Amino acid sequence: MHIYESAPHRTLHRPLRIGSLELPHRILMGSMHLGIEGDAAMLNRLIAFYVERVRGGASLMITGGVAILPQGGGDHMYCLTEPAHRDALGTLAAAVHHAGGRIAMQLFHSGRYAVQEETGLPADAPSAIVSRINPTVPREMSNEDITATIKAFADGARYARELGFDAVEVMGSEGYLLNEFLSPLTNHREDAYGGSLDGRMRMSLDVVFAIRSAVGPTYPIIFRMSGDDCMQGSTPLRETLIYARHLEDAGVDALNIGIGWHESTVPTVAAVVPRGAFAPIAAEIKQVVQVPVIGANRINTPELADELIAKGWLDCVAPARPWLADPEFARKSLTGDRKHLNICIACNQSCLDHTLAKPPQPASCLVNPRAGNEMGFPKVHARSRRRVAVVGGGPAGLEAARVAAERGHQVTLYEARSVLGGQLQYAARVPGKEEFFETIRYYEASLQRLGVDVQLETEPTAMELSHFDAVILAQGVTPFVPDIEGTELPHVTTYADVLGGRVPFGRQIVILGAGGIGCDTAKFLHDSTKPEAKVAQFLSEQGVAGGLSSTVSITVVARSRRVAAGVGRTTRWIVRGELRRPGIEVMTEFQTEAITENSVIGMTTEGPRVLEADQVILCTGQSSRNELVEALSGHADVYVVGGAKNSQGLNAARAIREAFEVAYNL
Ligand code: SF4
Fold first, then answer.
1. Atom 3, ligand 1: which residue's CA is nearest?
2. What is the pLDDT of residue 569?
3. pTM (2 d.p.)
């Protein structure tokens, strides 16, 4: 049986108790910050987001972090010391209950990650040790500060209970305050709250004791603890397991296992992280406690969640971003409707990159641009049904066709190639970006479900298109060929031909352009020309030194000093790091002057350079494909979206969002 037609899962349906809280099944919605919290004008929008996910079947939803004190919060956050914020949170809880859902409040203190410019206050931390991702130097908390903070956690839990929340989750991972107290890296105190493990975990345990005493014996407390900080020299696993047992003894009803600090150089949520990569850590913790253990990082499919629970590694899952990608994550998972599940591809482009932007933008989702603005785009049919043509089956065209059909229009989609996906087909071939195949599968299934007439290998004429009521042109882009001598030579090709499998690889390759596509192409070439993992493992286990590395040499040249410019903040460092592989060289400030039969000639800051090359790959930007625009200029309703509209700074997030908005408003 194909995975997308799988039967409902073995474990996900099973009910679960978290303390006194009875959950009907094992798919929770993890905490996430939407960037609209704390703004009275956005409350209804926030409520619409949560209520839609109640209807999508979440067994319990955990809010984004709610600050217990102003110095532990930041921009676009609720803070429990603000009466108006408490009122808003009460309204949210009531709305969730009215819709039939359950909601837990995450009690949050950012510790040394607090940004003074945002809070207007010094950041609190166990010791005055600055983080590499925050210029604010924190102040070491006094004993009075510690007592007040413990009390604030307890007050926060009491507020949560009074406001109608079904549980609290204490944020104690990701490098925030309680995690900082636990770690020897950030806790250099010499008093009762530092030193030995007993001292370093005292803050967390005192917080749990205080909360338990404030809310009574039966109110559910979830503790989000760090399974591994992914920081050299931080809390070792041996101590983490002891800590977990003490938290259980202190009275928590479930442990939610976070992974990695925000300043860690280990990717924890990006697409390069294999699905379920960190679940073994949660499994270790599960072996030492009786309370339910919740897992999340990179658990984005129901079959994986089911497998991890069936193996006894986890008791339930609380993914967050997968709920942005599909508000019906639980309902579709539980009914086995995998085919129509829109999967989070771990790109971070419209969620984390938005909330971490300066200034922050509301979180949304690359594969579901409606996420975070459900109120602005209600799921209703358009007033009149129109005949709509969409030209181009790349990301913009697929989204335009899907949304127009969802709105009740009669849609025909034209694609010149024999397959749908456009640039997504290229992206999906890059190692670590295979999740894009899920996006293509989702669109194909959606168009079929919605009855879209898909015409492959078809390029309609302007005359044919003029018979439609509305036309959306989404023909995308073609690789841009710069005006450099030698680009017409036979060994010069483009990223599209390489990623599309239309040309054989050279052995000495120069890639012109070090933007996202240039970096992706280098990675693709490198990984395609080295032995498969199991072959490499065999060779190295047998002590065979040869045959372990890539068989090609790759030089990526950038005109400027920047590499991977345009790639989002949360993944740029990963992309750059992946170029540091044997066989890949990156050369910045290289102005290409000519390509010859066996070289690339350019000027660098140190003078002229000649790079030997038997293949040159152009990753030098893209040009819009908009040849139908003029021919249809007299037509009443023509819209151009995505790369066809503007190839500058193009990415899938922009293309899909533009297509969504145009198609929705038809
Ligand atoms: Fe997942 Fe990307 Fe959507 Fe974020 S923007 S939820 S990472 S698919």
1. 365
2. 82
3. 0.93
